[in-house]
Amino acid sequence: MGLMTSAQYIESIRAMKRNVYFMGKKIENTVDHPVLRPSMNCIIETYEMALMPEYEDLMTAESHLIHEKVNRFNHIDMEKEDLMKKIQMQRLMGQRTGMCFQRCVTMDGANALFCTTYEVDQKYGTHYHENFVNWFKRIQKEDLYVCAGITDPKGDRSKGPLEQADPDLFLHVVERRPDGVVVNGAKLHLTSCVNAHEIFIMPTMSLKPGCEDYAICAAIPMDDPGITLIIDHNSCDLRKLYSGEMDLGNAKYGGIEAVCVFDHVFVPNERIFLNGETEFAGILVDRFATYHRNSYGGCKPGTGDVLIGACSLLSDYIGTGKAAHIKEKLIEMTHLNETLWACGVASSAAGHQMPAGNWMIDPMLANICKLNVTRFPYEICHLAEEIAGGLLVTAPSQADFENPVTGEYLRKFLQGANGVPAEQKVRALRLIETMTRGAGAVGYLTESMHGAGSPAAQKINITRYADLSTKQGYAKRLAKLP
Amino acid sequence: MLTVGIKYCGGCMATYDRVAACAEIRGRCPDVRWEYAKEGVCYDELLLIQGCVRRCASCGNLIARHGTVTVCGLQDVPRAAKAILQMAARSGRPDETEPPPQGENK
């Protein structure tokens, strides 16, 4: 079938009948909903750019499964170079959208599944790799978008799945049939799920023997009648309903997350990629996390590029561009941003090949990358707010600019340096506002903190990979210690 | 007529407007057939539009009879256009029977 055009993608989502709720109401048309459409625009951008010659080299790749050009978000990384092109693409997308563009989980999950299912089959003689490859070939051929359901609600966080008061607080198998399984439960924080054709689910953590029903990984069509999506209500999202385009800062692009409920959903055998092999649950999610933590070394520098650009632009607009302290702040923002990029590049460059044949990101460096991502965007935003000044949070609305009485005052008193019109200055401020404390901050800050695992998760992995005993050996040798 | 395949890098850190640079070169070379380069097709020349000095556009599977012209910035536009014009002027002459090795960079 080949790469879809954006029009084809939009109509494919429009044709899907799903159970979607937002602000207490069932939403029949998510495509044209003003709060939800900006999120879809990010996905649309991934489809459009794949068809543009000037971005094709990053946005597409030759699939070793179907021997056709595919969107790189649907690509298995079979060359080491793919690990670098992955984050280059992500930086580019961050620059283009100024926010989380929401499609990375497909490739990160697919690569984790490709190598893990191979190893499960090697050990247990199962057919998960064949299931996955057959399913993913179709995803590639039809250029579909797959979102990921990883995080369980977890209930009492001090207890494992079997000890919960309600067993459904971790998604699990509730019925086994000859032709498949029935799953029940929910997944949280599902990025862009209303814009997806399919979802793959996987365990959220390592599992012990006895938790076989929770060791389930599978792919499910997004329009399965047992799935209900409850869209999040996040920072400044409703501004899209009542504010002018200027007030949004980044009017075209947005993000949404959702609670996804699986109410006794049947999954046929051919769509199952792990079913009871508890020892591989932690391996699978750890590999997904490794790929995904590397991804942040691409997307967040790209988003940071936009914020740094907005601050630089604003300082020119208000006549502070030559001030030493402003230059110092822009340098520090760039330093932090490029450090994130350096970590992303390093984790790609130090990748290694898996037994299945695809390339894996270096796990230590991916965790270093992500741990830095949990911190540096906050400092970058702090510096952005310093540069922006108080008008960042006190600017009047577009409606006041359009009012003949107040508009005249605002154009006079909010004008910038060297004839820069007031509206131009406020537009730059609004972009900074959305990225530092508005709808864009959901992706740039909180998602940086918790996406692909919270800081504690990275620290656990850093401890695992730190190899302190080898480092002790270096010290002993030099200090002549036993 | 000389056939030139155009290949862009992915543009993640482009330091200049690559599309405008390509359009400028095309404008200076009117008697050339231009295509976006595809694998398996043999072009007379390849025009690589690299967004920066890293030059990471993948072109190993692209084929050109007479080699590659690479642009890494706007400063390369005149040189690139001149090289393509010279090749266009030479193409079709009887003595142009043996192409130089593929990948020779101008």
What does this structure look like?
- The complex is a heterodimer of chains A (482) and B (106).
- Chain A is 52% helix and 13% strand.
- The model of chain A has no long low-confidence stretch (mean pLDDT 97).
- Chain A is globular and about 75 Å long.
- Chain A has 482 residues and is of the alpha+beta class.
- Chain A has a domain at 283-472: Butyryl-CoA Dehydrogenase, subunit A, domain 3, CATH 1.20.140.
- In chain A, the strands form 4 sheets. Chain A has a 6-stranded mixed β-sheet, with no helix packed on it. Chain A has a 4-stranded mixed β-sheet with strand order 5-8-9-12.
- Chain B is of the alpha/beta class.
- Chain B has one domain (2-90).
- A 4-stranded parallel β-sheet of chain B has the order 2-1-4-6, with helices on one face. In chain B, strands 3-5 form a two-stranded parallel ribbon.
- Chain B is globular, with a radius of gyration of 13 Å.
- In chain B, 40% of the residues are buried.
- The chains are: A alpha+beta (482), B alpha/beta (106).
- Chain A binds chain B through residues 53-59, 81, 84-85, 88-89, 91-92, 95, 302, and chain B through 6-13, 18-19, 36, 49, 56-58.
Strand order of the largest sheet of chain A: 2-1-10-11-7-6
Number of strands of chain A: 14
Order of helices and strands of chain B: EHEEEEEH
- The CATH C-level class name of the domain at 283-472 in chain A: Mainly Alpha
Largest sheet properties of chain A: 6 strands, mixed
| Low-confidence runs of at least 5 consecutive residues of chain B | 94-106
* 3D shape of chain A: globular
> What value does the Rg of chain A take, in angstroms?
24 Å
Alpha carbon gap, first and last residue of chain B:
20 Å
Tally of helical runs of chain B: 2
Biggest chain contact: A-B, 16 and 15 residues
* Oligomer class: heterodimer
